[in-house]
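Q: I'm writing up a methods section and want to include an example of the input and output format. Could you take the sequence below and give the corresponding predicted C-alpha cells, formatted cleanly so I can copy it straight into the document?
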Amino acid sequence: MGQSTEEDRKALNGGGGGGEEESIPHKMWSMVCNNLLFVLTLAAVVGGLILGVIIQQTVNPASTDMVIVLLKFPGELLLRMLKCVILPLVVASVVTGLGAINAKSCGKIGGVAVAYYMTTTIAAAILGLVMVSVIRPGVGAETADEYDGTENVTLNENTNTLDTIMDLFRGAFPDNIVQATFGKDSTVLTNITDDAGKHMYMDRTLKFNMGSMNMIGVIVVSIVCGVLMSLHPEETAPLMKIMHSINDLTMRLVNLILWYSPIGIFFLIAGQFAGVPNFGEMMAQLGKYMLTVLGGIAIHFFIILPSLFYAFTRRNPITYYANMLPALATAFGTDSSSATMPVTLRCVEENNNIDKRISRFVIPVGATINMDGTALYEAVACLFIAQVSGIDLNFGQVVITGLTATLAAVGAAGIPSAGLVTMVMVLNAVNLPTEMISVLLTVDWFLDRFRTITNVMGDALGCAIVQSCCEKELREMDEELELNRMEGGDALLDKVGPGDVMMGSSI
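A: Here is the clean output for your methods example:
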C-alpha cells in the first residue's frame, strides 16, 4: 500500500525529476507574490507610458486637454495622499531617530551626512559642467525664437544669489513653526522708478508664499527637539512615546497608500505623455541637450554614487539598488523626492537593513537638501543657454555657475520642476537671459523624473554610508542600552521605544 502511494505521488509530479522542473515556475510565482507591490508599480510605469503614447497619437487634439485632466485625476489623489503624511512623518522620524542617539553621536552622524550631501552635489555640478563643455549641445542649435513650446512661465527674475542664500537661512529659523508647515518667506525685489521711468532704487520686501511648506525650517526645529530629548530622556520620555506612536501610525498609513500607488502612477504617467504635442519634434529640437543631461545623470547614478557606496561600505551596490526599485519606480511616477520619502524609508529600513536611528535623520534631511540631479541639470542648462545665445563664458564664470548651481540645488524644493525656479538665480549669477528658460519647458517634465530618481537614490546610499562611518558609535549605544536593560534602566528604554533597539528592525 505504501509503495503504491509513493508511485502515485511520483506520477502526479510527472516522474522522478518532474518536481524540480515545476519548482521553477513555482519559485517565480513566489517571487512575484513576495514583491507584488513592486511588480504592480513597474507594470503601472510601463502601462502608463504605452497608454499615454496611444492617446497622444489617436485622440483629437481639440479634446486632449479634458482627457489629460481626467487621466491625471487618480494620480493627483495619490500625490495629495503622499504629501498629507509628509509633515507627521518628517517630524516624528527626525525626533525619534535623534532622540535615540546621544548628543556626541548626533554630531558625528550629522557631520558625515552633510559632508556626503555636499560632496555628491558638488561632484554632480562639476560633472554637468564637464559634460556640457565637452558635448556642447547648444553650439549650432536653433535660436530660441525657432523652438516650439516656448510657453509663458511665471518666474521671479528680480532675484539674486545673495537674497536667495539669505532666504535659505531665514527658512532654517522660522519665526512661526506653525506657519512654516504651510508656507515660507521669500525676498521679492521691486524696481522703483521715477516719473520719467529712470531707475531710482531696488525695494526689497519679504513675501509669505502659501502652499509651499518650509521643509528646512521644520527639519531644523525637529533636529533641535530630538537632540534636546536625547539629553533629557527621563523628562521627555512621555513625549517620546507619543512621537513613536505618531511615527508608527504614519507608517501604517503609508503602507495603505502604497497599495493605491500603482493606480496613481499609471494615470500620472499616462496623462503626462498624452500631453506631449510631438515627442519626435521635441527630440529633434532638444535631443542633444537631453542626451547630455541623461548621460551625466547616468554617469553619476551608475558610476560615481556606487563607487562611493562601495568604498565606504564594501557592500554590493547591485543588491542595494535592486532593493530600492520600489522607491525608484515611485520617484519616476510622482516626480517628487518629498512624496517618495515614505517609500524610501520603507525600502532602506526593511529591504536594506539600515538602522532606523540613521534612516530617520538622513532620509528627511536628504529629501530636502540633497539634490544631485538638480545640481547637474542646472549646470548643464545654464551653459546650454549660453551656447544657444552665442555667449562665451570664461573660466571664472563657469566656476560661479557650478557653485551657484550647487547652492540652488540645496534650496530647491523636493517637488516637480522645482529646478526651473531656482535656475533663475544661476542665470542671473553670470548675466545670462532668464527668458531662455522657456526653451527648456518642453523637456523639463521628462528630465525631471530622472533627476528625482537620482536624488532619491543618493539619499538611500547616504544612509548606508553614514551607518558605515558611525558603526562604532551605534555599537557603543547598543552596548550601553543592553547594560541599562540589565540594570533596569527603564528611562533609557522609554526613550528609545519598542522595536527600535536592533539595527534594521522593521516598523
